[in-house]
Amino acid sequence: MKLNIKGGAAKRVLEELFDAIVDLEMERELPAIPEKILFYARKMVGASAGSLYLLEDGTLKLKVCQNDEVDVHSVIDASNMKGSELSLDHTSIAGYSVVSGEAVHVPDVTRIAADLPYKFNSEIDKNSGFISKSILAVPIRHPSEGVIGTLELFNPAHGVFENWNIGVLKSFSVLAAVTMVNIRLYDSIRDSYLETVFRLGIVAEFKDDNTYGHLQRIRHTSKIIARHLGCSEKEQDSIFHASSMHDIGKIGIPDSVLNKKDELNDDEWAIMRKHPEMGAKVLENTKSEILQASEQIARYHHEKWNGKGYPEGLVGEQIPQFARIVAVADVFDALVQSRAYKSAWKVQKALDFIQGQRGEHFDPEAVDAFFKGIEEILEVQKKFGELHY
Ligand code: C2E
Ligand code: SIN
Ligand code: SIN
Ligand code: FE
């Protein structure tokens, strides 16, 4: 594209563009993206105010507005829905740019020719004290999805928008569109993938006569313990999702054993003790980080700190930390909630048991973290189950 930009401006635009690319590339959170896109768009052309709209459900929804001169958020604000929707037609400047797919340049809003389809909506100016002079609305165009929204910029530093502004913003809007669409796709794939992980976990629980409440309690409790152990947010998120699969291997245990109302005999116990390895077999050799964590948890959640657990009899820190955490969450849950083979324990008895197994069955640090988070853990138990005092 040929842009007729003077030297100083060209340098500034390029610098802004590089900053924008790096910044948008680093940003993984969808809500922060429109704010950044509008910020850089305004900087490139020196606009003192601007709005970004996206097409959603057949209307134009305001995502962000920024104004260096007045506080517009009491008048127009995406977060409280105030003035935040435009109908998708040619009656507004923003709407016209989307419907026509063309940039709309209004050098002076007080002199819009009467025969043009769009009008300037002076409501916002009246209520905010801002005086719109010059407006440029540039459609945000995605290479395959077409126009997905528009950038509307107000009052450039030099009074009117220059021709090169349109070209620069058109190019920038493609980058903006691709960034937003990619992150939206990434988020929706990740959400449906994580939900599938959770629902697969529920499949195993159905067989065990548990409802989804057990898994909710396990994953929330594991996350709370991880937080009090000082794990990073990412690790907390991983254990939250990965712990849903800890008993997936119970799918391979015959119902006659799994739902026996009595104690297991030696043969049945030998079968039951295979559930960690059966679960790990389902999950092994995956590239997914979440499922790798799930595999470790499934395989090692019945190991004990003192080496007397199964399947491998690992000792202390040989046991992966996630499995040590889930062990505490799982046993506490098994104790305070009822099972086919046992009735629920009173809370205090279960707490005494966990403390008593500190350094025996359980990692001492995981037990300490469990007690640091006990208020929150009991809340989770009440929310997704029943407690007996
Ligand atoms: P689960 O019911 O989810 O129990 C998980 C873990 O919580 C148990 O692992 C155990 O460490 C602890 N736990 C549960 N109930 C009690 C209890 O009454 N006292 C004590 N001290 N600890 C308890 P574990 O023992 O390796 O068992 C693994 C799974 O085997 C259990 O998962 C359950 O599905 C099954 N299971 C264990 N014992 C019996 C039983 O007597 N009858 C039947 N039908 N199933 C059993
Ligand atoms: C706005 O001021 O942000 C919307 C007004 C228009 O596009 O006409
Ligand atoms: C769900 O609660 O249905 C799944 C949510 C998730 O694991 O992200
Ligand atoms: Fe288990």
Considering the chains and any ligands shown, give keywords for the structure.
389 residues; alpha+beta; Beta-Lactamase; Hypothetical protein af1432; 2 domains; 6-stranded antiparallel β-sheet; 6 strands; 51% helix; elongated; binds ligand C2E; binds succinic acid; binds fe (iii) ion
Folded structure, characterized:
There is one protein chain. By secondary structure, the chain is α+β, with helices and mostly antiparallel strands. It folds into 2 domains: 7-184, GAF domain (Beta-Lactamase, 2-Layer Sandwich), CATH 3.30.450.40; 206-384, Hypothetical protein af1432 (Orthogonal Bundle). It is built from 15 helices and 6 strands. It has helices at residues 7-26, 32-45, 93-100, 123-128, 163-207, 212-228, 233-242, 255-258, 266-272, 275-283, 289-300, 321-336, 347-356, 364-372, 374-384, and strands at 47-56, 59-67, 85-87, 104-106, 135-142, 146-156. The chain has a 6-stranded antiparallel beta sheet with strand order 3-2-1-6-5-4, sandwiched between helices. A hairpin with a 2-residue loop joins strand 1 and strand 2 (59-67). Helix 6 crosses helix 12. It starts with 6 loop residues before the first helix and ends in a 5-residue tail after the last helix. The model has no long low-confidence stretch (mean pLDDT 91). It binds ligand C2E, succinic acid (2 copies) and fe (iii) ion. Fe (iii) ion (FE) binds at residues 247, 275, 301-302.
